[in-house]
Specification:
Structural class: alpha/beta
Oligomer: single chain
Helix content: 10-25%
Number of helices: 12
Radius of gyration: 21 Å
Distance between the termini: 32 Å
CATH class: Alpha Beta
CATH topology: Alkaline Phosphatase, subunit A
Largest sheet: 8 strands, mixed
Number of strands: 19
Strand content: 5-15%
CATH architecture: 3-Layer(aba) Sandwich
């Protein structure tokens, strides 16, 4: 069946999607929130960043347990994580081991390294994230859509699915000595693992969500592919006339010239979709540093997806091997730009993470609306003058699904699929009559130069 192109056929899309009982609105409406900013950071579970904070705020959420009993019966006391985020493996297989309570079987989290992933940050180590959580809203039952590292996590953020792919990061195809320069449709000679079908895993395919309607060879992939197109939130926003940007790294070549983490391009999301990479949608992929310029000039679009990549910002990702404090500094910088900027009165900031990292979390994930089990729980904080102060939403949901569901609800757009159609759309977090909370004070702590050194880790699936 040919792909339905939402930006050219919204009425048809509404009619077809209605068959699947997704809640739809035929056209864009006046938004409740004028500017939605989604800041997606890297590689932490909920307990990793907020477990000890919850222990200090028992009325808000369940805190880090005193001991963690592993599958083999070993009792581990959760430790305090060092500022340099432990380099724990977080491929699909490692995340599945963690969810089976075999955290000690994950590379980088064995007894030899004192179960480094069974740990978390004290509130004093995350002053900006803690201040936002304390002032505004926390979702303490938000899970990743899949057991997937960065590549899959960022596809889920934009589409609510990774298509036929498992989500494991792309890797060089057998028989080739070179690959690149990118991670998605421009990742020449790279392939990615597919999800099993009836217990059998199909051969890997070029790491690209193709779009054969573009008229490009292989639908935009570097080689023939069995993968199929999926609609994205970018399609919906284009169709509804909703302005948007992805603030990250605009190209692999630009990333290399910028002297930043070459793997940060994976977080841009857009290049994984042929339609975004090879059409005018690509013009919405801009440097992350441009976000602060746009915020200061009251020029933020209606929806901003922001990643700490490029423009010297890769060191702020909180990725394994990098400084967690540097990332918290950046959270504060982003929050100041959004909440205290000229568009602050109409803005909402969502802070979340693409995958678990893979650090311990105590809550088993539920089943996603499309029938598969979700991945580990991740931090999810919602901030802004229209957000109920000091609130907690404990509705089981997916982080990516709720982000998409809120944007769709706010701007009156259709659901992409079951994972966003049946996600918590966050509307219950908005104020009705209460006065808005005052924005908390954000801090920028002085850190040694080593805190801003980027550690490259491609997390390749092999």
């Amino acid at each position: 069946m040919a792909r339905l192109r939402l930006r050219h056929a919204v009425p048809v899309a509404v009619a077809l999607l209605a068959v699947f009982a997704f809640p739809l609105v035929a056209q864009a409406q006046a938004p409740q929130v004028g500017h939605v900013v989604v800041l997606m950071l890297e590689n932490h579970s909920f307990d990793s960043e907020l477990g000890f904070w919850c222990a200090a705020h028992p009325g808000r959420c369940t805190g880090m347990p005193a001991t963690v009993k592993l599958a083999d019966g070993t009792a581990v006391v959760p430790g305090t994580s060092p500022d340099k985020v432990p380099n724990v493996d977080h491929t699909v297989a490692s995340q599945q081991m963690g969810l089976a309570n075999n955290w000690d079987k994950i590379s980088g989290c064995t007894a030899r390294v004192n179960y480094a992933c069974v740990s978390g940050y004290q509130p004093s180590a995350i002053p900006n994230l803690a201040a936002l959580a304390g002032t505004y809203a926390v979702l303490d039952q938000a899970f990743t859509l899949h057991d997937a590292p960065s590549w899959g996590g960022h596809m889920d953020e934009l589409a609510g699915t990774s298509g036929v792919f498992s989500g494991n990061n792309p890797y060089r195809a057998p028989g080739y000595t070179t690959s690149g320069p990118g991670w998605g449709c421009d990742a020449y000679h790279k392939v990615a693992q597919l999800v099993p079908v009836n217990g059998v895993r199909p051969p890997p395919q070029p790491s690209c969500i193709p779009d054969f309607s573009l008229g490009l060879p292989n639908g935009g992939a570097w080689a023939p592919t069995t993968a199929t197109a999926v609609p994205t939130i970018m399609d919906e926003m284009d169709a509804a006339g909703v302005s948007w940007n992805i603030y990250a790294t605009p190209s692999a070549a630009a990333e290399s010239k910028g002297g930043n983490d070459p793997y940060a391009y994976i977080w841009s999301g857009c290049p994984s979709f042929a339609e975004c990479l090879y059409t005018a949608q690509n013009s919405h992929l801009v440097w992350s540093g441009q976000f602060f310029t746009d915020a200061a000039k009251a020029a933020l679009p209606a929806v901003s997806f922001l990643m700490p990549a490029g423009s010297g910002n890769a060191a702020f990702s909180q990725h394994n091997g990098n400084s967690n404090s540097a990332g918290d500094n950046w959270i504060g910088k982003v929050a100041n730009a959004v909440l205290n900027g000229p568009q602050g009165a109409s803005s909402m900031l969502i802070v979340t993470y693409d995958d678990c990292g893979c650090f311990y979390d105590q809550v088993p994930p539920p089943i996603a609306p499309d029938g598969h089990r979700m991945g580990p729980r991740v931090p999810f904080v919602v901030a802004g003058p229209m957000v109920k102060p000091g609130s907690t939403d404990s509705t089981p949901t997916s982080s990516a699904g709720s982000i998409l569901a809120f944007i769709e609800w706010d701007f009156g757009m259709p659901a992409l699929g079951p994972n966003d159609a049946r996600a918590d759309n966050l509307s219950s977090l908005l104020l009705s009559t209460q006065p808005p909370p005052a924005a908390p004070h954000m801090v920028w702590r002085h850190l040694p130069a080593s805190a801003y050194e980027v550690t490259a880790d491609d997390d390749d699936a092999t």
